[in-house]
Amino acid sequence: MLARAHAFTIDGLHTRHVSVEVDVRPGLPGFTIVGLADAAVREARERITAAILNSGYEFPARRITANLAPGDVRKAGSGLDLALACAVLAAAGQLPAAELERIALFGELALDGTVRAPRGALAVAHAAQRAGMHALALAPTCAHEARLIDGLQVSPVTSLKSAVRVLSGGAGDEPTATGARARSRTVHESAGAAAAAGDLSEVRGQHHAVKAIVIAAAGAHNALLSGPPGTGKTMLAQRVASILPPLSSAEAVEVTRIHSLIGERVDALARARPFRAPHHSITAAGLVGGASQGSVGEVVLAHNGVLFLDELSEFSRATLEALRQPLEDGRVAIVRARHSAVYPTRFMMLAATNPCPCGFAGDGDHCRCSGADMTRHRRRLSGPLLDRIDLLATLERDTNGDLRTPALMSSAQAGEQVRSARERQAARLAGEGVTLNAHMDVRMLQRHVRLDERSQEMLRAASRRGLLSARGEHRVLRVARTIADLDDSARVRQCDLGAALALRPEPSLAGNRVA
Amino acid sequence: MSAGDESKQERGACGVCLRRSWLLSALGGPLDYCARDRSRLLELLALSDEQLLAAVAGRRKAELEAAYARFDAAELEREAREQTICRHRRGYPHALHGRSSPHMLTVRGGAGRLAKLTAAPAVAILGSAVPSDYGRETARSLARGLAASGVTVVTALSDGIAAAAQAGALEAGAGSIAVLSGGLDVSCPPRRRPLYERIGRDGCLVSELPLDCAGRRWGQRASERIIVELAPVSVIVEAEQTPRGMAAASTARELGRPVAAIPGRVTSALSRGTNALLMDGASLVRGPRDVLELLFELSGARPKAGPTEAVAAGAVRPTRLRPTLERVLERVSAGYDTPDKLTRAGVDVRQVLPALTELELAGLLSRGDGGRYLPREPLD
Q: What is this model's ipTM?
């Protein structure tokens, strides 16, 4: 007898449809699984045998062959258990095979037949819906995750017995809201943590830096915060999350899918933008992913959100180099011997650093760093990364009792400014394939940033004085466009360009100052 | 340049002087030891070769004397790019005929150009290797203004004030002289390479040591004496009141060269040395104009351009600034030097950043450390 069930396997951020074919025929009793299965799938044999017997069914004492098609896709994880068990039962005639064609199965089996939830329920539900499945049966603990996807019936099943009942046309069990799953990566700040990060009104003084950060948030520009220790670089950066607009529904599915796939608990579609702040000891693999099969890096987890690199000069050179492609292309391609994958990485980068190794450059004559120290510091920062930084916000040590000066604005006010500036950008860039100024390419810049005669002269003067490279010019134009958007100006005026030029990263940071 | 001059310079330094240079590099270790006492070093450098060997060679005396006797100038490979010139040749700087002056110089950039640069009035600009951004910018604008009016800027190639002064002279499009503390081939740190190459193109790099002699502490002090000797006036831009910080000024005094200094804040340790020099009678310098007047007083030499034109040549100040810009520039000069401080000082928030950019593009402000802006020219 032959039976076929539908299941899904997870490969990085992608879910692949797997059809599970089971053939039961007379011969020496045995159970073989073919079709590029990894260790977790091959171990399924023992789990399935025990689960079937402990659920009160009969395990066919015949020759059983299970094929996982397509044969050239590597199958990983324990999510195929349920589909295999049901297909075995159907092939042995203990279960009507008709419903197996319409209901996808996803779950790991315990030896007593209980169904457990592997990671990635949301992504599997998404894939099942797109594959045209009628329903998805999975563990009740992750049913709410799958229900976030419209147009798919979700049937929670607590055990193999319930699955058999569902496949025979019965109803599913009640989903459970609790049942926390132990996962290695649940320690991450969940997307909702951003809201708890604090309000911009807690930042006293530093009006210049706050304004620069609002500009960066409005256009999704990469920004560098520089200032002596204790001036509030980190504090300011953490509050960026509170002024970014919530995710759009399409972005929310993308972000939630990613978080579901790494095994974070997902209760609802993410609304707040991700804010990732890895420690500076992170490795290149940790940052971009690819440490083990399917592991994703911080740049992917920051997709549609913010990646904050505190103490930028402490990150290892190799790690920062690895950021090149994700920043440039908005995606990262991880290629390893056995798998390759492309992940989306469109994030806004924020970095914070001290102006010199001791941190006090420009602060009276506290700084005792030698020229060689400064050169070393700049060299660590220079290169690929500084090339991608659009604006520099300098924080100064408060000498005038800044802590008593009022805050520039609250998160609500700044958020409103950012939201309306982003709406203007989206309206202007409609049909270009991007929605934010930071993502405009050179052609779009020519179309959407038209300068008057005086502004052009200003830009030429800046290039002549060696303050701007060609690439720097594009960066300045993007920032100028955002400043004009914040001011609700249809044109980029000279004062917008002037402000953008004042905010450009210092060439000295890139190490080309002679003296 | 006539053909006769050319052939003369082709000959380079004489064998005696080349041997002197070799001897100094061979005695690097003992000299380094003696260099802890600066006036002793000047005394030692005034000795003849034999006396020098007797004074510092110690246990290696016999060995070095033998090598000294065997020395053959012809064995030295002569690089095409670097010329040598010694006190026995025409074109050797007149200023270097003192007791403790170097006997010869290795020159990158051509002996002819060195002769031309030293024939013009010269000013040495010296100071801390770890200056504040105020010191750096002042040295830079001072050198720029002086170079623009035809004065040769002489300084080292070290970090801080020296490098800033070199950059300033280059900005004015003039050649400057950099005195290195070791051999020309080996004593330029990689981060100074671009500057080294540019000075080699427009100005001169000189050293009294052979090409491959590593720079040592004594070499640094010895090079200071060459810098000071080459110029009739030495300007100290920023210096701490420590023996190291004051070394250049005391060398100048010992060699009988007048010292001038730029005043600084009384609260800054980096200005303590220069302020003390001013108390002791050094001439006070506020900008290129003061230095030019000082040069004129000292030698009667008239620089190529008058002081006023010189300052004008250094900065391309637009005829008239808009009142807003004028106000911002005034506030920055008064110490409201960051966007936040300017806002607090009453400048309209929306005008601060554009105004700062315009002033920067006009060459009147430059960026200092920590997001501060610095005026590039002293007040008239």
A: 0.75
